[in-house]
Amino acid sequence: MNTLPVYRRRMADSRRALFGWGLGLAGVCALYLPLFPSMRDSGLIGDKLQAMPAGMLDSFGLDILTMSTGWGYAHQTVFAMLGMLLLLVFGIIQGARAIAGEEESGSLELLLAHATDRTSVLTARLLAVVTCVIGLVALLVAVVAALNTPSELSLTAEGLLGEGAALGLLVLLHALVAFTVGAVTGRRSLATAVASIVAVLGWFVHNMGAKIDDRLPDLSPFHWAYGATPLHSGPDGAGLLWLAVACVVLAVLAYLGFTRRDLRA
């Protein structure tokens, strides 16, 4: 088994990307969170939301009362909007590149030619994707925690833990959609497209599905992650379990598909 050397190499190659994306996430937190006290006290949050069309508020899951609280503001601006969006883009890119990107460039064939079996390579790349996602989510949570008191958010450690776990598994699920499609097909563009479509549909069903059927949001990974408002209420065991099971299923499908197909020359 050559899993560890391949994993180390992959992580070394990802250092610059992790640094850049980490700066971006920290910048989002530093840009939005410190504004909360002044926006709350001036009533600016309510004024801006009331000026927006109702359909737009629904599509983004925005609520005036929730946004006026520290946890609601942090959730909407960081964990459910810009921070989440950056992490989803990062996760999908990493997942699509892990196998399919290397296969299209020809470097995967070269790696396998050096007495490295497919299972070891897939395991190493999977672990690298998981490590990168968890690392950036942990950084985001740490920055929010550091800004918690200065920004008067009144977030609890339990809430941050629940929100971080939900966001981490949500991003990992979409990263693994790209990873699995890439491992099964060897096509990076297809992997990116499928994962992006899953994300868009999931977001739509989570925020707008109830207008069609009250049970529809239950099918969305975003609802599994955020339906129980973990930043306010703490970890949601049922939602985290659904996300974890979906991640495991995707990983198994990646192994089954990658080990049984012919690689593209």
TrEMBL record:
Annotated TM spans: 18-36, 73-93, 126-147, 159-182, 189-206, 239-258
Name of this protein: ABC-2 type transport system permease protein
Alphabetized UniProt keyword annotations: Membrane, Transmembrane, Transmembrane helix
Top-level taxon of origin: Bacteria
